[in-house]
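Co-fold these.
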Amino acid sequence: MRIDGLTDHACLIVSGPDQKGIVAAMAALVARHEGNIVSLDQHSSDPVGGDFFQRVVFHREGLTSALPAIEADLAETLEPFGMTWTVRDISVPKRMAILASTEDHCLLDLLWRHRRGALPVEIPMVISNHTNAAEDVASFGVPFVHVPSQKGPDKSASEAAILQHLAGKVDFVVLARYMQILSSDFLEKVGVPVINIHHSFLPAFIGANPYQKAKDRGVKLIGATAHYVTEDLDEGPIIEQDVARVTHADSTTELRRRGADVERAVLSRAVLWHSQDRVIRHGNHTIVF
Amino acid sequence: MRIDGLTDHACLIVSGPDQKGIVAAMAALVARHEGNIVSLDQHSSDPVGGDFFQRVVFHREGLTSALPAIEADLAETLEPFGMTWTVRDISVPKRMAILASTEDHCLLDLLWRHRRGALPVEIPMVISNHTNAAEDVASFGVPFVHVPSQKGPDKSASEAAILQHLAGKVDFVVLARYMQILSSDFLEKVGVPVINIHHSFLPAFIGANPYQKAKDRGVKLIGATAHYVTEDLDEGPIIEQDVARVTHADSTTELRRRGADVERAVLSRAVLWHSQDRVIRHGNHTIVF
Amino acid sequence: MRIDGLTDHACLIVSGPDQKGIVAAMAALVARHEGNIVSLDQHSSDPVGGDFFQRVVFHREGLTSALPAIEADLAETLEPFGMTWTVRDISVPKRMAILASTEDHCLLDLLWRHRRGALPVEIPMVISNHTNAAEDVASFGVPFVHVPSQKGPDKSASEAAILQHLAGKVDFVVLARYMQILSSDFLEKVGVPVINIHHSFLPAFIGANPYQKAKDRGVKLIGATAHYVTEDLDEGPIIEQDVARVTHADSTTELRRRGADVERAVLSRAVLWHSQDRVIRHGNHTIVF
Amino acid sequence: MRIDGLTDHACLIVSGPDQKGIVAAMAALVARHEGNIVSLDQHSSDPVGGDFFQRVVFHREGLTSALPAIEADLAETLEPFGMTWTVRDISVPKRMAILASTEDHCLLDLLWRHRRGALPVEIPMVISNHTNAAEDVASFGVPFVHVPSQKGPDKSASEAAILQHLAGKVDFVVLARYMQILSSDFLEKVGVPVINIHHSFLPAFIGANPYQKAKDRGVKLIGATAHYVTEDLDEGPIIEQDVARVTHADSTTELRRRGADVERAVLSRAVLWHSQDRVIRHGNHTIVF
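Predicted complex below.
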């Protein structure tokens, strides 16, 4: 499968210590491989002694056959600068697994957007610890896998089952209101980025029941946060956030209803940007180009 | 001084245990005193066994002379219901003192709005622990009082000085980025509501340097919160909040610059609503009509 | 079917020339029929000589059997004031038909919200001039009716077919990106409110291709507008509007993709409010309580 | 006067037909003049046969003495590509004249931001056709010039007076709610960009009294638009827009009050971006980097 309109387009991500001449070196490299730069974004964490981040999309007729030479040249050219780089044919969609529980609004929203052609990914599977969404997922032509949660604190068997399903088949994982906490062992073994949607405006209301906490505190805006998952619960690098206005008249149930709209909007943007290689992790921060 | 267009308008706030017939009793009372209800808002914290809150604005020709009889009737009518009430001639502006420090954006914004006729208050004084804003405040025709901060943890002398300036002259106090923490002793003695603007989206980033904390956490939205001050720092009832979008490219300085716009917008709305008797405190929550 | 939690709740809408004593008369009426007012909103278009609008929700044990007496009393009580009124058992869901074309994002969003219990309506049918959504609609258990568009300017036969399907079965109609213009003859015969979603921030970009027009004009925000349909295209009373930020980098296709999210959010709010009797038409305006 | 932190920083704007190798040529040029690229934004109006726009900020020790050689090199390097370019020492603030009338909220907001160091410009003068703001403007240390409006349709004498004041002293002009329509003759003679704030969400409500028109149409959001002034009233390239939510309960006066906050926020962002060379005109559009 190729993404329409992106044939022969590559995305090059470069990061490392900021220094003179990087842009020139990179642009000359693209030019000598007959590439045409279509878009270019860059960021320095600090003008002096900071880190440099760049995302370049270039068009190159016959990209597939040209990529090996481009990669070799990148290694040679960027090494003296101490830069890290990746280059990828962006007409090849990333493979995204979705993990879900009973709440299906984020899950279905992603499936719908995908079907409309609004998410440039493949979805090899949806894994849930419940079965209520099985029929809906199937109606989108996406394989549904049921991995029940383990009772008790030890989740190693169910996590192992999930890992086995994912192994070699996905480029990133999305937790679409998946209500199980993943162990650091799982995160290490899964080996691909994991994106979560938390139903509050982090760092406010970390942990369980954020809408109840929001009601108890009497906030006038509720929010949602999409972030990469790390071992520290709700502490990973934030990709996107948004809020909705509420009033004293809104019950906790109403906060949940409104929040559901914010959650799916925020998660869909984070997933879109990640699938387009627009998000670069930098410590506990993200750069979103 | 009277507020244009509000002559002979009263605002009646009623609260207490919800029960049948309250609205009818209150509306009949207004009608038998020849009042015409101009606006009416109500809220029940819970349809069953909850608390009832109502704000009624009514027009009554010759309000001043009618008020004593209305008040007597209110006492008699609402007593059986166990309700609390206040009634006020809203053409009489509330008296608002502003406390400020070196940062002047919130202070000047309030003074400008007041001069434009957009805040129905009187401003008997601005008190600051710095002198930089003295000339600006004077140019608005508002008395400026300098009460320097005390060194050390004991603030009782400077707080006593402030209390003496305020005594009997104000109906509420606004902390317009006033950078001193007020003691619970002060709050008890001042005897009027105190509104603060905190430069974060509470409960995120409580305490000092919220913009630095926001930068460190990598949030994608920054915010500001106007709340009533209680003994618990940054924990009082929230009146209003808002946010602004930021990106990885924004420095902490830029967050401060953008945040300043959110702060003054949020504070001005909270002050406006308080001055119009639109905000009712209910435990650690507010009802904003 | 009854809506959970709303059994024995009635919604009373009163409108007419503003005058003293209306609130008292209405509240006394509710009280003497043993109703308990749960929420009350009112608005005067002008404090002097304006129009008065009120929405009251009250709880009354055994509402169904009490309603005839309440209605008779309303007729007698409000007649002297020259007021118009309706009273309705709000635990009975309104019946909503959806008309759609090929674009399915608004249609599916409504169906999905309905399934989640977030829209208190019944959906007796979806009518489309295309068949692409037939299977999706069926999967929600909602009858799908295909009424092809007539070629040429005369739409009377297809409109007649639609009217026949709707006759007696619906309380309002939603045009969920239905791309046919309905004749004034249709609007007259259908006899129930018709809500449309227009894919621009009205009154900007009336008519066809608003996203292309938005791109051509170079706006920095795109929007969507839900409104009641009148004979004048895109000129009916506005119920709700919202916007999303765009930049020079967004293509018309991207505007459409982003706009789709705004459209479905705005339409779903308008439909929710209408279904809750929160929207009152007043000439070419709406009052939204 | 120099802007803190921007010493030795240049902003290079390049635009023209998109083609391979432009970025490499430009980056190599900066590198061979020992510049370090600090930020880089680019945009293509169309990946195939479109127009290319680039904004590069680079640091170069001893910029002032290096600029002539850089400019000569730019002419030689970019000529083969048919590109247009400008390069500017961005530590030198642009000179901004403000034209105002009686409404002072936009005027004072700009002056206050400037005083806080939040607008990197010099303000050589404020010109008004009224005198009410004279004292306030003076308090900011900015020269105030009164040029009364001419009665009747011929404005040539007053426009000539304004032109004489501006001649050679300003880099751009801001109309801060200046209520006179400037002739195309004036726009031609002034020879610098003119930015206007229109008090509606263009293209809705072009011309006079937009808040009254907004009230009459019953919109649920009001807006403001900052744009470059062209001969066609309210039709120039849009720089920035924003909106605020309103309800049926807001009078036209209230729309004006709320709108004033949107106007000053939108105008201040447009002015900031223009002063930082972030806005590029492209026909009737703007690219905002």
